[in-house]
Amino acid sequence: MTYVLTDMDQPGSKASLLRGTVTGLDPRMRIAMTVIYAVVVVALSNLWVLGGALAVSIALLALSGLPFRKTLKRMAMMDSFIIFTLILLPFTVPGSAIFSLWGLEASWEGLWRATEIALTANAVILAVMTLVGSMEPVTMGHALFALKTPARLVHLMMFTIRYIDVLREEYQRLRTSMKLRGFRPRSNWHTYRSYGYLVGMMLVRAIERSERILTAMKCRGFNGRITLLEGFHLRRSDLAFAAALGLALLGLIGAEIAYATY
Question: pTM of this prediction?
Fold first, then answer.
């Protein structure tokens, strides 16, 4: 996933040096801290504390050296999936009315809930993109396996990441063949039937390719086990990063408790 989330930097550039701060850390620690961070942020409810969590995620982004514009653009793509939910929440949660639109009253409680969801989602997804999204798929698979994740789940994830592009290229070839034969999509049964044939052919070719891949893997001695050529080792920098992020999370938890008891 690194080739998706990062840009090519010149050796020795500021972004390259910053990126080494995160990418040089133990992948197991990065995954474990990402899970802990997500659990803590999801448990928060105060808007000011969630704003602090988002600030921590932005600090992680700055520390990682990932391109701000591209990363935030991808985070905005995630927001597009929940934007309609956020818009409808003020009209569906009962409470003190803000205004009325076509007979529907928007409430302050619904607005706060929508803001809470937006801050939580953006803080978590930004941290995931920073700590895990900058990790090579193979490295992430090996780290998950080292964390005692079931091998079948690791295989499924690694094959999915690897062959998404392969299936996309196969789809592009089939679409090109259809265009060369004069196919033009329209709102008629011929178009619907053609797309049905396209999906069916994609499934057939995917099955054939999977059989060839399995045969090739067996010829190379694959027995269903993941063999690690190099082990992972925790260093002082890993422990220091985990301690710093842990202190930030403790600060967020303390602020949440303080606001709750205030």
Answer: 0.71
